[in-house]
């Protein structure tokens, strides 16, 4: 079988209809994102079984617990252990197909300094300065 043998159609929806699709999971495939700088809160939001933003609809007790453990860990080593479990579980269950990697970047002239990114790659304007 080749890709051309598989029937497919694409439907376009207004953004106002997105909430209903998220609630009903009335689709075969959809594009979304789980892009983050820090795993909390994005991974919990994207993959915890109780999250309204869990577009995949996955509700796995082991994954849910690992996400909660990562969210509530009080030390960096405990967070690492929890998110290693999250990664292993997502790999095993494959509820989504990750197909792109974000590369937040900044391009500036030689005289621009103080470029500090935060969140999803936004710049802190208060830190930017120009050399004379």
From TrEMBL:
Gene3D superfamilies: Dipeptide-binding Protein, Domain 3
Name of this chain's protein: Solute-binding protein family 5 domain-containing protein
Domain of life: Bacteria
Organism: Frankia nepalensis
């Amino acid at each position: 079988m080749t890709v051309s043998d598989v029937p497919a159609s694409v439907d376009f929806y207004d953004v106002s209809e997105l909430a209903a699709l998220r609630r009903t999971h009335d689709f075969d495939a959809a594009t979304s994102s789980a892009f983050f700088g820090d795993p909390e809160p994005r991974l919990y939001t994207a993959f915890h079984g109780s999250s309204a933003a869990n577009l995949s609809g996955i509700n796995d007790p082991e994954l849910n617990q690992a996400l909660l453990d990562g969210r509530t860990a009080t030390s960096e080593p405990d967070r690492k252990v929890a998110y290693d479990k999250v990664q292993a579980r997502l790999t095993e269950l494959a509820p989504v197909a990750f197909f792109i990697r974000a590369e937040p970047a900044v391009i500036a002239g030689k005289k621009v300094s103080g470029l500090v990114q935060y969140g999803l790659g936004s710049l802190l304007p208060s830190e930017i300065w120009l050399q004379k």
